[in-house]
Design goal:
single chain, alpha/beta, Rossmann fold, 7-stranded mixed sheet, 6 helices, 40% helix, globular
């Protein structure tokens, strides 16, 4: 079963699974949202857990590969009064022209997207020169003990449940495409905020 099928079956129930972790992630979502400005694309919006943290005056475009989750996010955005448009779309194939956005946001997406390098290329392409890419992602820790004792068992569980790969080195992939201006490591490096600038 593909990640799309697994997430489509979860739908609104996804927040019940993710809910216990959100008390750890909420402050990080708020921090990540502080880096956004202008015309924004959120890649992999899911059920819209980032939406409450965005400034009210932004123009937001949000995509997700799973229609069932996108509908939940769209309803949430209306309740929050956000100027937002939603699209069923893959991160690896963004249907926007080059340089369309001032900021691209990705939160806990690169642990799931099937082809992370292709998705990163697409984010780089649709971002305007000088624009920002903001990532809040699960990443492999710099501590081997944490990886073996915590992340490896979690990787097996989440991989089976929602196709989540907790051992990816997304922070290094960001550095291959963007000039990293800010990076924060949390919980032993298993979660990071990375902010990159598109040069040119």
């Amino acid at each position: 079963m593909s990640f799309r099928e697994k997430y489509s079956r979860l739908g609104e129930r996804y927040e019940r699974i993710d809910g216990p972790l959100e008390r750890f992630f909420d402050p990080l979502r708020r921090k990540a949202a502080a880096f956004v400005s202008g015309k924004i694309l959120e890649v992999g919006v899911g059920t819209g857990l980032m939406l409450p943290y965005y400034p009210k005056d932004i123009e937001l475009h949000a995509i997700d590969a799973v229609p069932e989750m996108l509908r939940v996010a769209e309803k949430k955005a209306k309740e929050l009064g956000l100027n937002a448009s939603f699209y069923v779309m893959d991160a690896e194939n963004l249907e926007f022209p080059d340089g369309s956005f001032d900021t691209v946001v990705s939160t806990f997406v690169f642990c799931t997207v099937p082809n992370p390098e292709k998705a990163m290329k697409e984010i780089h392409r649709v971002l305007r020169p000088g624009g920002r890419a903001v990532f809040l992602e699960h990443t492999k820790s710099d501590c081997r003990l944490i990886n073996w004792l915590f992340l490896k068992p979690l990787d097996i569980l989440l991989g089976w449940l929602i196709e989540d790969n907790t051992l990816r080195e997304t922070h290094r992939l960001v550095g291959e495409y963007f000039k990293v201006e800010h990076e924060e490591s949390h919980y032993g490096g298993i979660v990071r905020i990375i902010v990159g600038r598109k040069e040119g």
